[in-house]
């Protein structure tokens, strides 16, 4: 897949609902917000107060709220977030890590293809191209959560399982008003939803499409994550939930998210 860093910034813009550019492409950085890898999963939880032009921004891929009442109550704050998130976000030119990119576009699943990550079957994202984020050495607890590279039938010690997270930020509102799964909105509760199966994430999480301004092609984009097995609840074989109870403080929500789910790749597929 012929994709460069500029198209990847378009993909980030689509999935986060904000304008993201390479730092080297910005002549004037005054007021720009720098997006750091290690803080990539908390902006939605911090809402408006996190959106300050500082050197390190905490930001999230998404937060799924399946409680309809809660979604209605947050409408006003979401609209405020929308206006704030029109600001410019910048990433360093080494935000991505091409050495860990992998092309799954022309691959298909085999019965013997049982790869493991974090003591869970790893359903590889066949049909997609992964563009790796530079996450190694970005977290204070080391790199054990990533395991080792390549196809493996066994998990590495301390490794986290893989999950997929499509997003629909609805204009960068931050809190998703639609549920992740089909059926009753309150079937599993409030929190962060993801799936070990990219096909489930693609269908039910409203994967974002975007048209590249660089080449005119349309792509789907979804996040590939590692999820802390100690923090997630397995609701069924396709749905994992990191529960966040009603009334949890913003600071505690930030702590829960940062310790529970870590994106490590952007997955793109040409539409």
TrEMBL record:
<protein>
    <recommendedName>
        <fullName>PARP catalytic domain-containing protein</fullName>
    </recommendedName>
</protein>
């Amino acid at each position: 897949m012929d994709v460069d860093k500029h198209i990847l910034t378009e993909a980030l813009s689509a999935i986060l609902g904000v304008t993201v550019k390479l730092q080297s492409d910005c002549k004037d950085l005054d007021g720009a917000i720098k997006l750091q890898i290690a803080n990539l999963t908390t902006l939605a939880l911090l809402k408006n107060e996190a959106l300050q032009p500082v050197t390190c921004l905490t930001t999230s891929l998404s937060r799924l709220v399946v409680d309809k009442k809660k979604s209605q109550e947050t409408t006003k704050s979401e609209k405020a977030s929308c206006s704030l998130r029109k600001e410019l976000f910048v990433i360093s030119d080494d935000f991505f890590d091409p050495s860990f990119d992998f092309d799954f576009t022309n691959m298909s699943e085999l019965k013997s293809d049982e790869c493991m990550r974090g003591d869970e079957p790893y359903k590889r994202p066949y049909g997609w191209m992964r563009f790796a984020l530079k996450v190694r050495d970005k977290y204070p607890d080391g790199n054990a959560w990533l395991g080792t590279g390549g196809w493996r039938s066994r998990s590495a010690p301390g490794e986290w399982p893989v999950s997929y997270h499509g997003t629909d930020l609805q204009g960068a509102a931050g809190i998703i008003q639609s549920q992740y799964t089909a059926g009753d909105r309150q079937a599993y509760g409030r929190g962060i939803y993801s799936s070990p199966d990219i096909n489930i994430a693609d269908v039910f999480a409203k994967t974002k499409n975007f048209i590249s301004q660089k080449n005119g092609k349309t792509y789907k984009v979804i996040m590939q994550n590692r999820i802390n097995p100690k923090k997630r609840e397995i609701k069924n074989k396709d749905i994992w939930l990191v529960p966040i109870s009603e009334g949890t403080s913003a600071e505690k929500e930030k702590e829960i998210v940062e310790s529970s789910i870590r994106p490590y790749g952007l997955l793109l597929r040409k539409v």
